[in-house]
């Protein structure tokens, strides 16, 4: 059933399928924002975030890493694998570069906000793990509204005073920085789409599923952040559509690298004919870079949010069980697809 569904959704070449996948992960989540109330509490998305964590880690561990180091299994062909230690080292280096790229983005955002980034967001890969932002900015906005109401009440002339929100400047800056970070993140999503579909149709399809379910809480969380940073609902939705262009740009870049940067692929390459005396090309490094970014998102960027607890122990225990179940379901779907591909 999954094979037939993937065949319907992705009927073309790797380049065409990557572009289709980019539309799937960028379109529906953004249109869902029209149904979201401006005062949505991002913490209510914790179950969806946990499900996305399971999907991302499952895709990375069950699909991307085996594909990176061993290649795609083809029952109709026998393939001789030559152990090439330096090749594996370069692939591992590409994974680390992907991981550290998001560490740098995270650190840069926190520095740009004067330390507010640590309290208000989980970094450059701002997904629905912007919950800290939403809570903190919500408090700041509430404080601003309280001040304006107080001014209105104490107006000794008795005239009506227009109520205006006093948005904390650092919060407003955080909203704009989040848009920049979101745009950059979407570029890496696009790179992931192109790299995975050029690896194999199954890898591409499962990566699309993992990213799609991660995009839903991501977009809603960013939407709540922008609204609480002073954006109108319409402006916040328009901003999210603009950042979605980053995914298309990333996909086109990835396709260009794969088409013109070369890939060892089926024909293979002389053992010392590629990068740094290995059989690798630049196109072969996109998939491990993607795996590194997924590892960051699924661990450093999101896990801290799932570790947050409240004072009610029984309530937190039930919440934890639901979250762990959601993680298991997300990973289980990826394991099932991988097992039966």
Automatic annotation (TrEMBL):
<protein>
    <submittedName>
        <fullName>ZIP zinc transporter</fullName>
    </submittedName>
</protein>
<keyword id="KW-0472">Membrane</keyword>
<feature type="transmembrane region" description="Helical">
    <location>
        <begin position="85"/>
        <end position="105"/>
    </location>
</feature>
<dbReference type="InterPro" id="IPR003689">
    <property type="entry name" value="ZIP"/>
</dbReference>
<dbReference type="GO" id="GO:0005385">
    <property type="term" value="F:zinc ion transmembrane transporter activity"/>
</dbReference>
<dbReference type="Pfam" id="PF02535">
    <property type="entry name" value="Zip"/>
</dbReference>
<feature type="compositionally biased region" description="Basic and acidic residues">
    <location>
        <begin position="117"/>
        <end position="133"/>
    </location>
</feature>
<feature type="transmembrane region" description="Helical">
    <location>
        <begin position="320"/>
        <end position="339"/>
    </location>
</feature>
<feature type="transmembrane region" description="Helical">
    <location>
        <begin position="45"/>
        <end position="65"/>
    </location>
</feature>
<dbReference type="GO" id="GO:0016020">
    <property type="term" value="C:membrane"/>
</dbReference>
<dbReference type="GO" id="GO:0006882">
    <property type="term" value="P:intracellular zinc ion homeostasis"/>
</dbReference>
<feature type="transmembrane region" description="Helical">
    <location>
        <begin position="285"/>
        <end position="308"/>
    </location>
</feature>
<feature type="transmembrane region" description="Helical">
    <location>
        <begin position="6"/>
        <end position="25"/>
    </location>
</feature>
<feature type="region of interest" description="Disordered">
    <location>
        <begin position="116"/>
        <end position="163"/>
    </location>
</feature>
<keyword id="KW-0812">Transmembrane</keyword>
<keyword id="KW-1133">Transmembrane helix</keyword>
<feature type="transmembrane region" description="Helical">
    <location>
        <begin position="241"/>
        <end position="261"/>
    </location>
</feature>
């Amino acid at each position: 059933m999954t094979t037939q569904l993937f065949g319907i959704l992705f009927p073309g070449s790797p380049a065409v399928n990557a572009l289709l996948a980019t539309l799937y992960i960028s379109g529906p989540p953004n249109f869902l924002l029209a149904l979201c109330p401006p005062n949505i509490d991002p913490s209510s998305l914790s179950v969806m975030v946990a499900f996305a964590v399971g999907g991302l880690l499952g895709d990375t561990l069950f699909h991307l890493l085996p594909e990176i180091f061993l290649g795609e299994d083809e029952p109709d062909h026998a393939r001789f694998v030559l152990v090439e230690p330096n090749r594996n080292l370069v692939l591992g280096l590409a994974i680390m570069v992907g991981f550290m790229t998001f560490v740098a983005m995270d650190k840069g955002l926190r520095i740009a906000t004067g330390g507010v980034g640590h309290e208000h967001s989980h970094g450059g890969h701002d997904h629905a793990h912007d919950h800290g932002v939403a809570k903190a900015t919500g408090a700041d906005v509430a404080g601003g509204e309280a001040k304006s109401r107080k001014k209105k009440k104490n107006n000794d002339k008795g005239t009506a005073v227009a109520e205006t929100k006093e948005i904390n400047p650092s919060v407003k800056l955080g909203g704009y920085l989040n848009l920049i970070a979101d745009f950059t993140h979407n570029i890496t999503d696009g790179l992931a789409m192109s790299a995975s579909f050029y690896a194999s149709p199954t890898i591409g399809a499962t990566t699309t599923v993992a990213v799609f379910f991660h995009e839903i809480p991501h977009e809603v969380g960013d939407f709540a952040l922008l609204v609480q940073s002073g954006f109108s609902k319409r402006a916040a939705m328009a901003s999210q559509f603009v950042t979605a262009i980053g995914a298309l740009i990333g996909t086109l870049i990835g396709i260009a690298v794969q088409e013109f940067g070369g890939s060892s692929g089926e024909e293979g390459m002389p053992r010392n004919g590629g990068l740094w005396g290995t059989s690798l090309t630049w196109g072969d490094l996109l998939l491990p870079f993607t795996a590194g970014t997924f590892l960051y998102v699924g661990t450093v960027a999101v896990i801290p949010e799932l570790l947050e607890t409240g004072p009610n122990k029984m309530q937190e225990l039930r919440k934890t069980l639901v979250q762990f179940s959601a993680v298991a379901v997300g990973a289980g779907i990826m394991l099932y697809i991988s097992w039966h591909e």
